[in-house]
Design a protein that fits this description.
CATH class of the largest domain: Alpha Beta
Number of helices: 5
Distance between the termini: 36 Å
Shape: elongated
Length: about 180
């Protein structure tokens, strides 16, 4: 249909442009999610991340590992076999204010502010125990919403500590 005047033409072009941008955003968001999954799969092909700092004199290994993890833009939490939180990066820490000591029901429910919506404590514990009890390195992924998920994998920091039961959790929440 033909526009009656210039104003109507401008409005119809703006609406078409907004609709196109919305469709593109959805396609890019879906593609971004697919690429993120592929990148995580590629990086974790060995099903384990090993950070070896034994050859770096003068730098405490845990501090250097924390500085690396601080630069990751997504949510990261490092915990041990007893579900004690050893580290969480700034993306997750801003939700909690003070760093919680342990993963518990309150921690899991508070993750909804990060965009992790469909996660129960039982789902998390089940995936965590499967990862801990596996003999070979595995990768556990928990789908927590339409576009959100959590990935759990083993992390070894060689240097100061030799704890082989450290787990790295990466999180991708729903956009608000």
């Amino acid at each position: 249909r033909k526009p009656i005047d210039l104003d109507q033409l401008i409005v119809s072009v703006e609406k078409a442009f907004e609709r196109l941008n919305t469709e593109r955003a959805l396609k890019y968001r879906t593609r971004e999610l697919e690429l993120t999954k592929q990148i995580v799969a590629k990086i974790t092909e060995e099903k384990e991340i090993i950070l070896d700092f034994r050859t770096m004199p003068g730098i405490p290994a845990m501090n250097f590992a924390k500085s690396i993890l601080d630069n990751v833009p997504g949510g990261l939490v490092v915990l041990n076999r007893d579900l004690n939180i050893l580290y969480m990066n700034h993306c997750v820490a801003r939700i909690f204010g003070a760093t919680p000591n342990k993963i518990d029901l309150e921690f899991v429910s508070k993750l909804s502010e990060f965009g992790i919506t469909d996660l129960t404590y039982e789902m998390f514990i089940s995936a965590f125990e499967q990862l801990i009890n596996s003999t070979s390195g595995t990768l556990e992924t928990i789908k927590t919403g339409k576009y959100s998920y959590m990935t759990l994998l083993r992390l070894k920091i060689m240097g100061e500590i030799q704890d082989h039961a450290i787990i790295l959790i990466t999180m991708r929440g729903e956009r608000k």
